[in-house]
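Lab notebook, bench 4. Still working through the backlog of constructs that have no structural model yet. Next entry is a single chain of 339 residues. Request: give me the structure tokens for it.
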Amino acid sequence: MNSFAILCVGVDLSVAALQTIIKVQQAINDAGDTADAVMKIVAEQACEATGAPGAVIELAEFGEMVYTTTAGSLSGTEGLRLAMSGSMSGECVRTGKILISTDTETDPRVDLEACRRVHARSMIVVPLVDGNRTQGVLKVICGEPDAFSDDDVLLLEHLAQFIAKALARANVMDAKAHAASVDPLTGLANRAAFLAALETMISSAAGTGNPVAVVVYIDLDGFKPINDVYGHAIGDEVLQAIGHRIAHTCRSDDLGARIGGDEFAVLLASSTVPPDPFGLRDRLVTVLQKDIHTSAGVVSVGASCGAAVVGGADLAEAVLARADAAMYADKRTRSEPRR
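Model written out:
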């Protein structure tokens, strides 16, 4: 017997419920324990074990409940959004308690219009709880009133634990992936994440021969003296301010990165509006050269920028090298005495 089933021994579950739990665990082991796989298996088994025509896993997102994984009669409704306020699912998330509606037509807690739309006359809503956090709900519905038993409630409570644990693991993995791809000082992407995004963009356009993006490479002028005079702590404040300015100057589809030291890059994605590297370069130079307020007072830096067009036959490192070379050409131009 698997570890989860052992935990259920002594709990007032029927033999059929225990068999369902073991079946779900085996299916998860076979399919892999990614959150998507777990949610799909549990939703399908929730329908089968309770006799419910439909099941859905709704995740809480910015004040709404989002239909994320569905089964049975609710298949195809993924992406449906309901306000948390005024819905039983929302109340379930707020309270962290199992909620049952024996007849939605007379139940003031439900969103009656939404229930009628999906033919939910009765339903069980179970919270997906991990620690002190409720991330969403597992819900089964039926078109008839008073369709579910206490055994159904108990079984769904145990099935919900599979989902909650899978979502918790996914959140941990997402956090680790985020930490591995982000420069901890500035919050921008790091070099590895920037190159990976650039490589993905190149691969998606391989063989087209058309420009797919532009890389802008930035090097700060006059940063080393700040570090030498004020120390690395003040230098870090300057880099954080520069990272913030880059992030807020770029478009939402662009990717800003700290390549290393005082060098940064921006990947301008192709869109319906062609990327304008020269316009962005000019905006960045203007913004980055503004005074920076630090703990040691006001300081300023300059910025040299170079750009490279990205094609479908390129290599990511080669593109970065071209942009770097263009940046140094710009730096030499800036350092030449004016006549």
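Notes after review: The first strand starts at residue 54 and ends at 61. The CA atoms of residues 235 and 323 lie 25 Å apart. Flag for follow-up if needed.
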